[in-house]
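Methods, example record. To illustrate the input and output format used throughout this study, we show the complete record for Enoyl-CoA hydratase/isomerase family protein. The sequence lines were provided to the predictor; the line carrying structure tokens was produced by it.
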Amino acid sequence: MQLPAPESGQILVKTTESVMTITLNRPDKLNALTGAMYRDLVDLLALAEEHDDVGAVLIEGQGKSFCAGNDLGDFLAAGNAGANATEGGAAPFIRAVSRFEKPLVVAVQGNAVGVGVTMLLHADIVVAADDAKFITPFVDLGAVPEAGSSKLLPAWLGYQRAARMLLAGEPLGAEEALQCGLVAKVVGRSELEGAARAYAVALAAKPRRAMRESKRLMRQAPEMALHDLIDHDLALFAELLRGDEAKAILAAKLGKK
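The corresponding predicted structure is encoded as:
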């Protein structure tokens, strides 16, 4: 697979062991995302979705912090031009990451701010360093929560804890994020890259259609009545069991016995 040259010059990308690793590489600005960086991210997620040799995506950030959110200069410029600030920048990325069908792992160190937090709500595994802080200062910027965070954060964290983040703008530390389910694992800073990559490699190695359909079921389940979900997952279970993927796996396991 030929990887495109990122437009921004501030995104690094490589694919090894069926994992596309996307690195935010603007450490002098704490990886604040510009319009060009958002476009690169959208293009790379689309590329990963299209290619069978990519089984999972890992997003990480260079430097002391994962992501400082949207570049404030871009917001101001869009507002002064009378444009919709999010439609020109974050919106396509938010839509892309929320609809991404393959496994998505994110490694977070230092500060994750704004969209640096809300993108995590659409990841499958988030690994945080023990110095990570999660900050959503939307109200303080005269804006509102985005990326579905006004629904997802109260559902995951409870209303009071979500209000501390979304309304009061209080940071959430790594250990509390682990306790409330915002992240899957907390490790030392030196272990972060290896721990996140281990998850990405493991997910990429699993049966592709089973992984994609399982992720879709998990995302659809909260919106479905339980009986409808049971009927749906039983039908899908039977369909996949008849498929070549499951047949090959079961035949190999029986052969070993």
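Annotations derived from this record:
Strands lie at 11-16, 19-24, 56-61, 104-108, 111-113, 125-129, 133-135, 172-173, 185-187.
The longest strand covers residues 11-16.
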